[in-house]
Amino acid sequence: NKLVIIDTDCGIDDAQAIMMALAAPNLEVLAVTCVFGNATVENVCQNILRVLSVCDRQGIPVFQGSAGPLVGVNWSPFSDHFGGDGLGDVLEDKDPQWKEKIQQEHAVNAMIRLASKYENQVSLVALGPLTNLALAVRLDPRFPQKLGELFIMGGNMEGKGNVTVCAEFNFAMDPESAYVVLEEFICPTYLTTWEYCCRNALTWEFFEELVNQDFPAARFMKAVTSKCWAYSKEAMKNKRDVYFGPGFVSYDSYAMAACVDGSTVLESIECPVRVELQGSMSRGMLVLDRTKSLKKSHAVRVMSKCNVKKFGRLLMESLKQPWRK
Ligand code: BDR
Ligand code: CA
């Protein structure tokens, strides 16, 4: 089995991606580490506890991580696309004891400890801003070497952003961390960009079938997505909002699917990359160095074509939970 750490800013698509990991018979989730992003890190922790509880997998340890980016005081806290709490603002199940269910150890220390214990065996799937990962390499410079592989949802391949003209949300929230990770993580790295997700969007008919399955996980996703995807459909029709993709796009699930089953990725480009830190319009944008001008020794795999049928099947399976301990 693949040993997996999921680093997440648990919004709606993170929840879906995590359910995919929990349902995958070939994955063992060692830990979920939380980071700010779609909501505050406190909200993210609570969202993870909810997801694990719906899937009856409360035994998986949850760690609290970074509350904000490495640099910047005026960063906008989080997007409201998934609601203020990251899960559509529809749940009324506040758990006053949630803090007691979070591990004492900081998320970054936990990542380092697990990667050291299972050297070269851990697949890290990063679904939010990359702050925890950047801190990990600063605390332990050998951290990237100790990882088996890294999957990232973030960045863009054609200069198209969803929160700024050129930058995708996860990279825009903490460009310095994205820069550090893409410069210093020399482990095999797979990038799921914004455009990859949009190009491989699923239909709204598929979405209806997905969330109307008769399982607790499907009912949960139906509830938390109700406002968000209704808004998304409308927004796309009127081209009012660039954040949502063309159709049903569960962004983080594409990265998770690549980890669960590499054959969901039909084509990818092997290319050195760098994150722009200075541009007045392009800060946080991912640049693909197709001409190898940067003379970097490390290249990443930027996914370009998805097997949408296989991906859809993984999504469908992921909501048939709980079904496994
Ligand atoms: C990414 O931004 C977040 O809001 C989503 O959860 C996803 O990780 C998409 O740009
Ligand atoms: Ca996310």
TrEMBL record:
Domain Inosine/uridine-preferring nucleoside hydrolase per the UniProt entry, residue ranges: 4-311
Any one GO molecular-function label of the UniProt entry: hydrolase activity, hydrolyzing N-glycosyl compounds
Stored CDD domains: nuc_hydro_CeIAG (cd02649)
One Pfam family here: IU_nuc_hydro
Record's signal peptide: none
Family statement drawn from the similarity comment of this UniProt entry: Belongs to the IUNH family.
Protein name as it appears in the record: Si:ch211-201h21.5
Species annotation: Poecilia formosa (Amazon molly)
